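Thread: "does anyone have the structure for this chain?"

Original post by V.I.:
We have the sequence but no experimental structure in hand. Need at least a predicted one for the grant figures.
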Amino acid sequence: MTSETLWYANRATGAVCLVLFTVVVLLGIAVRLRTRLPGLPRFGTVSLHRTLSLSATAFLALHIAVAVVDGYVDITVADALVPFVSDYQPLWLGLGTVAFDLLLAVLVTSLLRDRLGHRAWRAVHRLAYASWPVALIHGIGIGTDTGTGWMTWLTVACVATVITAFAVRTAHAVRASRQTPAALLHTEGAH
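Reply from O.Q.:
Generated one for you, tokens below.
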């Protein structure tokens, strides 16, 4: 495979990862809000979130593998696992590594969820919320398509949807915290 092919593959998998992980974050918020997606039962949203998370992680593994294999820049396996040690773009690559390490923690604890307990799993799972913007900043800082029209619009669309979803999630949490126990009983009885 040529270096040019690997370069295009790295760019493509990076953009696909942005879209997939954005949808994973949106689905995670939908699961937390107990939102039912049209055409799916509630457990279908959870299943879709898990499946898409694994698919996004596979694309991320491909993105990292292509970056390591591509000889155009010297990125080692250690650079992909240990933040800020790379000779190539240490800040931007390091942020990608931080995002990857956070996702690894989420992945491992999700696989061990039954053994860890819900509270411990949930505490670690929240790292996914931190991973997304760190990965986004990594892509903006190191991506060779940053500034092109299509990547700018893709990034803006992803950021806008995540901000909107977080706003809805925050509004829901604020509303729930203001409800009295009697109002909660009335609301739960209506469902």
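V.I.: this helps a lot. Residues 161 and 167 are 10 Å apart (CA to CA).
O.Q.: and The chain has a mean pLDDT of 90.
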